[in-house]
DNA sequence: CCGGATCCCAAACGATACTG
DNA sequence: CAGTATCGTTTGGGATCCGG
């Protein structure tokens, strides 16, 4: 990435450049977000347009309410999505993607596409590996 | 992705098309791999060239031997990386990326780049959020 | 409808020690 | 050098109930 082959970044302009390979670099936080299993799917959905809470819940199979609300809160904190509540009764809440989130989403949907396109090769490799 | 707005894929050719939003679709396996915290970093390193075990260990700060060998084994099973042992003494093992792994790596390094480029915006958003 | 609070289990992860 | 084995801790995440 920044400085292949080294463990700490050089300093090209101002302060230490971020380097995901460095243990305590905050960029690791971003990669950790992708570990949050649902972030990828939420980003993909919201990049198509705003969604209400239960709407998202239905569209993303298998997610528990707790995980969804937790994940949405984290993503809001990270500035990836926005949240707007309408004082209807019962209350309506709408989540939307931010410009920042959209740039990440564009990268992330490519991973999803890759998964859909190459899953068969992966499954074949697994079968072959397990045959030994 | 495949069929936005629905929960199950249509069947264009042969069998059900993969759909990451579908709960039990195997494409979820791929996304789960990215949850393996070290996969991204290993892919990035190996896409630069082959590495020996301890070489990788040194280049990826903070990884435990156990996690590294576990993760490498999974990735080999998935067909993302190759493993070659040389009967030297002591034994030498070299890991390299496969053509399949390389296509995924190209997507994944973009995420890493995004992290390095946008981390400040994320940190700022967090600070702003926490101020409330 | 949109969540928060609580409980609980399984999996991930890390540290250490040991082996071919 | 390149792992495996074991143990203990931490975290993710699902189920359920409750409240605004």
From TrEMBL, chains A, B:
Q: Which domain of life is it from?
A: Bacteria
Q: Which GO terms describe its biological process?
A: regulation of DNA-templated transcription
Q: Name one GO molecular function term.
A: DNA binding
The record's listing under CDD domains reads:
HTH_ARSR
Domain (HTH hxlR-type) spans 25-123
One Pfam family name is: HxlR
- What keywords are annotated for this sequence in UniProt? DNA-binding, Transcription, Transcription regulation
**The protein's name:** DNA-binding HxlR family transcriptional regulator
């Amino acid at each position: 990435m920044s400085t292949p082959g080294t463990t700490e970044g050089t300093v090209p302009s101002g302060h230490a450049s971020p380097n995901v390979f460095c243990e305590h670099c905050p960029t690791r936080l971003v990669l950790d977000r992708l570990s949050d299993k649902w972030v990828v799917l939420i980003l993909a959905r919201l990049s198509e347009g705003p969604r209400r809470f239960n709407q998202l819940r239905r569209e993303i199979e298998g997610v528990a309410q707790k995980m969804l609300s937790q994940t949405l809160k984290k993503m809001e904190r990270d500035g990836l999505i926005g949240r707007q509540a309408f004082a209807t009764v019962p209350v309506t809440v709408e989540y939307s993607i931010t410009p920042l989130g959209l740039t990440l989403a564009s990268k992330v949907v490519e991973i999803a596409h890759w998964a859909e396109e190459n899953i068969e090769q992966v499954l074949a490799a697994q079968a072959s590996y397990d045959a030994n």
